[in-house]
Design a protein that fits this description.
The protein is mainly alpha-helical and 122 residues long. It has two domains: 30 residues; 91 residues, Winged helix-like DNA-binding domain superfamily/Winged helix DNA-binding domain (Arc Repressor Mutant, subunit A, Orthogonal Bundle), CATH 1.10.10.10. It has a two-stranded antiparallel sheet with strand order 1-2. β1 and β2 form a beta hairpin. The longest helix has 27 residues. It is elongated.
Length: 122
Amino acid sequence: MNTATALDLITARQTAVTEYAGQLPEQIAKFTAEQLNALYPTIASEPYQQILAVFCAATAPIRAKDVCMALGIEVTVPKDVEGIRAKLKRLVRRQALAEANQAWSPSTRPATKPSQNTLRRG
């Protein structure tokens, strides 16, 4: 294989990956709260549903403080965020969210049984 052919293959692959990456926000947006309820029926309480709704509207991983602001929770000291952070950790254990470098994002796997936290780079 010559250099020109290899570069053409790399360019084609890069174009395909870029197109796929451009479709991801749209696919995430389709993942509505109703679909989350169907996948995670044990997550029924209102506070958790509100948190999951924030993630349905998100296009990137969200920090706990940002979740608080989206829910209208006033954050004046770090302890104000701890309650939400604990709920986010529970959602990670239930595999409804994935933890990514101190931020959370929707998980792409359906819940089966609690296991170790899934780390995602964001």
